[in-house]
Structures are given as structure tokens and as C-alpha cells.
Amino acid sequence: MGAHNVSDWQKLPLSLSELCIETTLRCGQSFRWRKINDEWHCVLRGRIISLKQDASHLHYKVTWPNYAPGLLTSPVSMSSACAPTLKDNDSDAEKDDTYSLLHSYFALSHPLSSLYTQWAASDTNFARRAPAFTGIRILNQDAWEALVAFICSSNNNISRISQMVQKLCIHYGPYIGTIEGEPFHDFPGPEALLGSHVESHLRHLGFGYRAKYIAETACILSKFKPAGWLLQLRNPACPAFDVLGEKYGTPDIKAAAGPATYRAAHDALLELPGVGPKVADCVCLMGLGWGEAVPIDTHVWQIAQRDYSFGKGSKTKTLNKAMYDAVGDHFRSLWGTQAGWAQSVLFTANLKSFAEQASAVKPESGVKVTKAESAAMVYEPASADPEAALVRFEENREPAIAKTNSRTRKRAVTTAKVSVESNTKVAETSQVEVCTRRRSKRIKAAAS
């Protein structure tokens, strides 16, 4: 391969209060950014983007590949037709749209400082913690990448998710270039993960039970969903970056041909293997532009218990669908249409990797909810093992775990009826079992 075409450093005027990449790129949103020699690097839309930041500017440069990234179908069945072809990389450099890509990726149309002020005015707990964690933005990522990455997040941590995503790119994604001796690959499309061998190979790479979900989801999106299905789930007010259609041959769907609401998009994602409420909310928030989506994982559940008085006065020890919705609805009423953005600030402040930064927050007693809010909430106790409770809740969609008994489901329905929307079904798991079995049969038939 010839030498890469590398641009000069360019800069985008941006204060640290509007974007802090040292925090935003490490807080469990994207899992492909790597820091090398005080610069951050990641492949986005077929190019390596390098970032560094000072107090007033975001600096960036681009490394273009010296070939057109081809579609890899498999690490063991790649044909010559799939191999990358040489190209004139000067053509990409001449029509460099990286400035617009970064503006879209970091969702810079949202005035973050104003949002922080708004959230602090409505929430004293946010006002106390936010000054130590300014500049945290929600990334406007590719929906397919977000979907696969957060399927990997089940019962997992940021470091291990990052390792899985990197392995996926190395074995299935097109090679783009090298930075300081480290190879960088783009994220593979769903067609690259087709084939009867994919699940077993992913298990060999350490994906565990998630391997089945990734392989099945890739098959569903490639063979059973209409072209551009994920794009149709996007928030119309937060469109995907337009280069997606040009670079990767997918339809450039700019209108909301499908669901035009967060709830509709969330419910559509729940039909996919390995996607429970938390994963669906992560994809809605970070891959589809629905700012009101509030993913409730172990950290957010701890925050809800510690700072917002959830989890008191109930005898049930698991986080069920009713409680999940109650916590999300409370935060949406508190923070508004960009509640997921505010949640990400408190989520980051709760991570062990930011403990030193969080130590600057002054201690204060938990924020109490009002009597009116309490009357509308369903309470669950603080679990002795919140991580285990959330894992059990997320995995209740798996066929082997979904067989909850009818007595438990009746109790959950009775407890939840004061706060759950009329169309929410706590005992959804039995239906998921049937759908999963049918879907698996269709996928196996298609793969054969």
C-alpha cells in the first residue's frame, strides 16, 4: 500500500464548556476512540480522524485511506471481489467534509452551556455535580454501530466493550490506515456479519452469548427489514450525516418514513434479538437522536436511589419494567426533552474512572422528590447487588431466562398500574419467547 494522504491540522472554534473530548470520548458512548500521544483517533465514515483540544478550539486532522474500503463479508470467506481497491485519495481530500461531519457527530447545534443552565435551574442535584463535569455532549453516532456496541454492553464494562468492538472492526471491518504503528479499521456493516460461521467465530473472539444476538440482528437487518430501516427510526430533528448514503450505498432517507416518536422507535428496536429496554434507549439516544431517551443501567439506578429517593418502601428486590419507566419518566419531567443528555452528565460523574474529578463535588444530602411525584411512582428497594438486578432485568428477554411465573407477573402488574402507561405490558417476556423462537427459525432457514 502507498503512503496515506494526511491533512494539515485544522481547527474548529469551541470552548471546553461546549465540548470536552477528554470526558465525552471516555464516558461509555462510543467505544472506538483511542488515545495515542495525547491525541484521540477514530475511524468515522471511511477516514481516520485525529483530535486534540485547547481552551478555545477543537483541532482535527484527517488520514485518508489509499484505497476504497471494501465490504468484508467474513474473516474466513473473503473473496477477491470484496478486497479493497486502489484509489486516488486526493479526490477525497479535495472534497473534505470533515468539518461538517464533526459538527454532526458532536451534535454542535445544541447549545450545551444553555442546557446545563436549564437543567441546573430545575434540579439542585445536577447543579451541585455539573460544574465538575462540563462539556459532556451526546454523540450523534451511526445507528448500526450503536446497536451492535450496546448489544455488547449487556452485563459488561466500558473497557471490555471497547475490546469487543475493536475485535469486531479488526476481523470484519475494512482497514483504513495506521497511526503510530497501530492499525485502524472502520466499523463493519451488517452484510459483513452474514454467514453460518459468524456466531461461532464471535464466540471464539470472546463475545459469549452476545455473539448469537449480533449474528441474528445482522441477518434480520440485511434480509428481513427494508433498506434504510434504522434510518427511518431516527428523530427527524436530528438527521444522520448525509455522507452515509454516498459512502456506503445505503438509502439517503431524510424524511421520517417510519416512526416519528421516541416511543415508536424504542418499541421497534425491542423486536431485535438481545435488545431490552436499556439497550433500546442507548440506541435511541446515541444512535437515533432521541434526546429524551434515558437509559437506566446500574449507574443510573444507583443515582436514582441515592439522589432521587427511588427504591424505598417496597418488598420487591428486582428492577422491573414499571420501575424502569418510572425512573425515566421522572428524569424526563425534571430535565425536559434532552433528559438523556443531562443523565449522561450524572452517569459520568458516577463512573469510577472519573472518581478524582467527582471528588470536587461538595457532599450534600439526597435530593427529595415531592409528595405529588411520590404518589405517581412505583418504588423498589435498593438491591444489595444493583448490577445483578439490572442484568436480570435486561436478560428477561432471553428465552432461557424469560420464563417468569404467573404469580410474579401478577404482582408486578398490580404494583405498577399506578405509574405505567396503559400500553405497557410487564409480562411481555412470554411473548418475546415465542417471537424469538420464530425469528431464530427464520434466520436459520435464511442462513442455510
UniProtKB/TrEMBL annotation:
Any one Gene Ontology molecular-function term assigned to this protein's record: class I DNA-(apurinic or apyrimidinic site) endonuclease activity
GO terms under biological process: base-excision repair, AP site formation; nucleotide-excision repair
Ranges of residues in domain HhH-GPD: 152-344
InterPro entries hit by this protein: DNA_glycosylase, HhH-GPD_domain, HhH_base_excis_C, OGG_N, Oxidative_DNA_repair_enzyme
Main subcellular localisation: nucleus
EC number: 4.2.99.18
UniProt GO cellular component terms: nucleus
Keyword Hydrolase: yes
Subcellular location, record wording: Nucleus
Reactions this protein catalyses: 2'-deoxyribonucleotide-(2'-deoxyribose 5'-phosphate)-2'-deoxyribonucleotide-DNA = a 3'-end 2'-deoxyribonucleotide-(2,3-dehydro-2,3-deoxyribose 5'-phosphate)-DNA + a 5'-end 5'-phospho-2'-deoxyribonucleoside-DNA + H(+)
Keywords on record: DNA damage, DNA repair, Glycosidase, Hydrolase, Lyase, Multifunctional enzyme, Nucleus
UniProt keyword annotation of Nucleotide-binding present: no
Gene3D superfamilies: 3.30.310.40, Helix-hairpin-Helix base-excision DNA repair enzymes (C-terminal), Hypothetical protein, domain 2
Entry's family note: Belongs to the type-1 OGG1 family.
Name of the molecule in the record: DNA-(apurinic or apyrimidinic site) lyase
Organism field: Chaetomium strumarium
Source taxonomy: Eukaryota, Fungi, Dikarya, Ascomycota, Pezizomycotina
